[in-house]
Amino acid sequence: MRAQSTGRKTAGGAAFALFAVLALTLAACGRGERAGEAGDGADPAAQSQTAAPEFASPTLAAIKRRGRLNCGVHEGLVGFAYTDNRGEWRGFDADFCRALAAAVLGNANAVRFVPLTGSQRFEALRSGRVDVLWRSTSWTLTREAQEGVRFAGINYYDGQGFLVRRSLDLATAAELNGARVCVQRSSTTELNVADWFRARSLEYTPVVGANEEAARAAYAREDCDALSADISALAAARTTMSNPEQHAILPDVISKEPLGPAVKRGDEAWTSIVRWTLNALILAEELGVTSDNADQMAEDSPNPAVRRLLGVEGEAGPMLGLRKDWAKAAIEAEGNYGEIFSRNVGTDSSLDLARGLNAQWNARPAGLIYALPIR
Questions:
Q1: What is the domain count for the chain?
Q2: Where does the source fall among the domains of life (predicted)?
């Protein structure tokens, strides 16, 4: 009796065990299928087949339809953007505008210069009044986050300083404790001065001008003891004074001011076109390509980097929606970066500014100018 009872229990246990094994097997198969399905979705090979978005710029299309580049510039800053006695725009920034027009339209003269004050510049970009802002504007986080713009690169490394009368016999900015300082309203200049004096527990009285010109005029009237602005702007302001030799720029540099072209946020392709045109001019100096020898180097140079830059090899231009010789056209229009610098703000100009930080990365002494590779 006990043996029969034990046998029934054993048979029932075996049946239950068999059912459990089958259930677990089916569950495992189900999990395996689901795992396989998830794996298929994350397959790197499948992901790599996703097409890159089309490189197309609405801004470039509008410029081509219009037949003209609208370039925002300073309303009048010697060396950077100003009109000569014939009413022609000249200067460092103006030359970059012409080079960009040559790159995108094949004509350096197909540019309309739009003079803008500091308070107008970003609204002019956002509204589409200008296609690019090449106006001594510092690249800052706040401007990218709040002003609706994107910076395409840096074409001038500057810093803020102080211009004073030599008669004050000042050696450093630390001696300006208690001084009256002229600055431009609603600018990084005004903020930098406040930060610099506060960090050193020094006192000063700000004399605020509505714009850069007003601040310079206040200094000329002796409404203040010092004028604070970017050092390049101070050098330009000094050349316009009746007795430039009576004014000195103090050695102190109180900020970093990376200046460069800005465009409206939302057109990534146009940002790239401006960026790579700037880099082409920088790279041209590094490779020894000038406005005079570009044609000859396109024919004779065995250097692959030169040949790609000048459109002899590769498809850099068409990838940007431009002609193959876009960079060559920009270089021939106004010269390479070094030519533009020397002619407008360097040794061949009235400002006579040293290259300093704006020397090429491989110069002696080295600077910060470094072209991204065109390849």
A1: 2
A2: Bacteria
